[in-house]
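Hello,

Following up on my earlier ticket. Below are the two sequence lines again, exactly as submitted.
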Amino acid sequence: MPGYTSINAKMVQVPIGHGQDVYSRRGSMLAYVGNVDFAPTVTDGQGIGGAIGRRMAGESVPMMHVTGQGTAMFGHAGLYVHVIELTGDTLYIEADRLLLYDATLQKGTMFLGEQGGARGVIRGAVSGQGLFTTTLVGRGSCAVISHGGVIELPITPQRPIHVDPQAYVAHRGQVDNTLTTAMGLRDMIGRGSGEGFQLRLTGTGTVYVQASERKV
Amino acid sequence: MTSTTFNAATLPANDNVNPYAFSVDLNGQWFTQKGKMIAYYGQIRFQALSAGPLDMLVAESFHSPLYAHDWIVAEGQGKLLLADRGFDINSYDLDKGNLTIRAANLLAFEPGLELKQSIIPGFLTLIGTGRFVAASNGPVHFVEPPIRVDPQALLGWADCPSPCHHYDHGYVRGVLGAARMMFGVGGTSGEEHQFDFTGEGTVLIQSSEHVTSSDAMLRELEGQIGMLGVPGLRQLHGTIAQRLAAEQQH
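Thanks for your patience. The regenerated structure is below:
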């Protein structure tokens, strides 16, 4: 199955066909050739239970189901688009960063406490990303959006990595993420460095970081 | 990464300084959109189109009263630097050709070209021979028809017939679709409306941008509202409310 083609840093082209349908963020289609249909969906192929769960978790960005026969191009608000291939592993991503993904991928919602324990909960609350994150499992491709492009940083057991929570986009692999604080007296009196909170990722995997601290 | 320090002599002549800035080697007159000049070397005057001595030039090259007060004429000799919102800047050469482009994204053009309003609101057509400079949100992607393009992602088109509107409501068919229509379940995909291009030519696409509030387009629409009458105005009121809700959702 031919994958996603990056036209340039901000646009991606995807073949659509039988068994090659995708889910994409609503309103992110730029152009298409052929007979391609765009239908709003609330379940994202997950069933109604998943949809309700996601809505409750606040990880719900309106998506649409793209089917038919042809080629479609996607992009969103001039943000950078990065294609990630999944080969049976799991991608953890903020819902609003997800531009599109193959319908062959299983989308789910994960409670941050499962991975990071109580600290995961604190992390979600402090970084403003909520207590839940979206997961994609399976074989296929997905595309994520970011300000200024993403860089992939490897995580190894010997080298944990610290990331600004606002610059964090996604991660994959066997990774524990916890929020660390470097708060000191200076922060209390408003003379801090502005880098009081960091996401600490340990284990084996990859983290995707954007070149900006802006949200989508 | 090294950065070069330019001076009047080393600035590129009619070429990009970097992907986001363009240097015009001015020797005579160029039309430029207001507010897109970031710097210049030399003796350059900027005059409103209404200036008396420009009458002849405007009459020959600028056929759009609607946009007249968004544009000025740069006159003189020197290097003129143009940029826009950090967008990618490209220059295009036309040889007895025509190209239509989103009005807000056209930065400047040589008087050898004639500017006219396109049938599609918010777009301008350039006809003739000469060079112009335009901005795009990310690099421009050139495609050939047949293709359907999201209005917000359309930058322009060349040589092909004007597009028509394409409306796609395939998903409202069937039982589920009917339920969607009746109860508003699931919302809309935001992709019901495209510009449909057919025939020979080239279509220019960019990553969609939040359409900059274009005064000209607003004036154009306002000018036509008077013809609607009370029922039409009432309906328009509803449409605007709906659209507003949809935009705020995205």
